[in-house]
Amino acid sequence: MVSTSQSNKKRLITITSKFPELIKLKKAKEQKSFNQILLETLPEVKKHIKRRLDSAMHKGHFSRGKYKVEDFTDTLFIEVYNNINAFKNVDQFYVWLFEKTNQLLEDTILEEEFDELFITNIDDYSNPEWKAMVERFSAEADGDLIMTEDLDDVSYHNSKYILDHVFVEDNEQELIENLDKALEKEEINKHINLVLHNLPDRLQTVFELFNKQSFTLEEIAVILKSNVQEVEQLLNKARKGLSASLFNRYSKEIKTN
């Protein structure tokens, strides 16, 4: 079973402090001010949208630049304004914010069948194939899954992927230590982002929501309109693919350390 120790996660201070203000502005019917305050609470939502759009573009759903983050946040403003009074607390509101965002994205990104080819054959990727993937990733996505204006955001630098996001079992501690010795933290983060970018969309989304947004399995099930069992299976499958890729790509480095 996946640990749910993140259920007591720390919510973003900004959205917690702004939620009462949004309620007051809606009551006063001041929509312009409402939208201005809401914009201050959306940096994580905007990053989530950008990553999913980049992934969908990479998979060939649409050309680069066809959709912008603002195409979704503009609609989100209207949805939040119309529904803000339905929420009793900020936690409920924050989960719904990602649920609605995901729904808007799904309505735009065509339903895709799981492409198992990459995750099934990940153990067989050779070093030249990994290098080719890195080059293609850099060329097609500019190696950038985060909006340029957010790169200086402290929250971005504190939320990079680490080995603990992939390996959660006690018997994997030795592998973690060997990888830590062999690789720099930035190399690990780049590899995880590269593999995530090639995983099926739902695997990538679940992994991101759990690790970057600190949602619980139960909350992710609500966001994806799924159930906890399926979400847990998707998270475990993403971790399995990532762990296999790390071991396969860096097996020589691990053995020599």
Question: Could you characterize what this model shows?
Answer:
The chain has 257 residues and is an all-alpha fold. The N terminus is likely disordered. The protein has two domains: 99 residues, Orthogonal Bundle (Rna Polymerase Sigma Factor, Chain: A), CATH 1.10.1740; 135 residues, Up-down Bundle (Butyryl-CoA Dehydrogenase, subunit A, domain 3). Helix 3 runs parallel beside helix 5 and helix 10 crosses helix 13.
Short description:
With 257 residues, the chain is mostly helical. The protein is 65% helix and 0% strand. It folds into 2 domains: 10-108, Rna Polymerase Sigma Factor, Chain: A, CATH 1.10.1740; 121-255, Butyryl-CoA Dehydrogenase, subunit A, domain 3 (Up-down Bundle).
Tally of extended strands? 0
Count of helical segments? 14
> What do the pLDDT scores average to?
80
What CATH architecture of the largest domain do you see? Up-down Bundle
Question: Mind describing the biggest β-sheet?
Answer: none
CATH topology of the largest domain: Butyryl-CoA Dehydrogenase, subunit A, domain 3
The best one-word shape is elongated
Order of helices and strands: HHHHHHHHHHHHHH
How many structural domains? 2
CATH class of the largest domain: Mainly Alpha
Proportion of residues in helical segments: 55-70%
How far from one another are the termini? 31 Å
Low-confidence stretches: 1-10, 143-158
How much strand content do the residues show? under 5%
Oligomer: single chain
Structural class based on helices, strands and sheet pairing:
mainly alpha
Rg, rounded, reads 19 Å
